Amino acid sequence: MAPRRGQPDPSTQSTPTALPSRREGDATTAFTITPDTAFSLAAAAGFGFGPSTGRPRPDGSEMRLAFVTDDLRHHAGVHLRQDPAGTITGNVESDAPLDAVVGQVQRILSLDHRGDAWLEIGHRDPVIGRLQAEHACLRPVLFHSPYEAAAWSVISARRRQTQAAALRTRLAAAHGRTLRIAGEQLHAFPTPEQLLALRSFPGIEPVRMERLHAVAQAAMRGELEAGALRRSAPEDALVALQRLPGIGPTYATLILLRATGATDVMTYNEPRLPSYAAQLYGLGRPVATRDDLERISAAWRPFRTWAAVLVRVAGDRAGLTWTGVGDGGGRRRQAR
Predict the structure, then answer these.
(1) Confidence band (pLDDT; 50, 70, 90) for 267?
(2) Which among 1, 133, 214, 257 is most buried, taking Cβ atoms within 10 Å?
């Protein structure tokens, strides 16, 4: 039976090897994930996501994460390392069930899908194949959860990203949970319950606080559950997300594509994709049309989201110029 629109193809999914090693009186539990194809934790750490201070920082083949768990009641601190053979070892500090934390880490790293299916896209499309080779078979690194992505959307709206990231860090330090992960202190964002208990915070205006509360309430009602959003038809999920106060089409797209683990949702309002695709695919014009993108992306199924992210990353790193939405096609920008 074919998967429902927006639902991942089960044939692309994989299961981690989790080896708990909890000692009595020790809250730390170890697990391993063995990717089925080449995967670079260092490349993932350099990809980053959302607020700059929340990005995994490149540190050899290591990554440190601190986040609200999917049950929305706990926090988790995770230290990841990759050995030369490719196996990823993680140490978790959390009161949440280990298997749930490991599953969330897999989703964050896009390791919940088979790598050979992703590489097959590169065999069909030489441009994607070249970009996969140049960028260590990069898979998207996601926000910790749709809840955290929605909260970031509210915090960052009409603010410089650096200012928004600093505000998020202050909020997490004051009202979330601070975890020491492999010698480094990280601040996990408040749970919905903690956020709802907060009446005011320096730098967050009353209307923005109301919107953060609406995000917390929606999360507690199950409206920001990653699996449910992923299984919905994309157009339905986007409509539902835009019911949140302050979440318009751009942020709804961000939440759906960068927090749920969706792999095959194709949107056409990402401002840089048309310019980058036109240059990388040698279309002979500055911007790809929607028809161009539909034709090109047909070879990307069932990983159109991943391929579009890879094109965006490659264009940014190459410093390609782009024409943004709303520029009237007349202003060219250099990626930084």
Answers:
(1) confident
(2) 257
Indicate the domain borders of the chain: 146-259, 273-334
pLDDT given for residue 3 in this prediction: 38
> Is 190 a residue whose pLDDT tops 90?
yes
User: What is the per-residue pLDDT for 271?
Assistant: 86
Instruction: Measure the CA–CA gap between 188 and 173, rounded to whole angstroms.
Output: 7
Among 6-20, 57-71, 87-101, 164-178, where is mean pLDDT lowest?
6-20
Superfamily of domain 146-259: Hypothetical protein; domain 2 (1.10.340.30)
Coil, strand, or helix at residue 78?
Answer: strand
- Tell me what the mean pLDDT of segment 304-312 comes to: 96
Spatial distance between the Cα atoms of 215 and 68, rounded to a whole number of angstroms: 14
- Sign of the C-alpha dihedral computed for residues 52, 57, 63 and 64 taken in this order: negative
The separation between the first and the last C-alpha atoms of the chain, rounded to the nearest angstrom, is 44
Neighbours of 4 (CB within 10 A): 9
Helix (H) or strand (E) holding 80: strand 75-82
Alpha helices in 135-286 (DSSP H): 146-156, 161-175, 192-196, 206-220, 226-231, 234-241, 249-259, 273-280
Contact (Cβ atoms closer than 8 angstroms) between residue 281 and residue 126? no
CA distances from 80 to 142, 155, 323 (A): 15, 28, 38
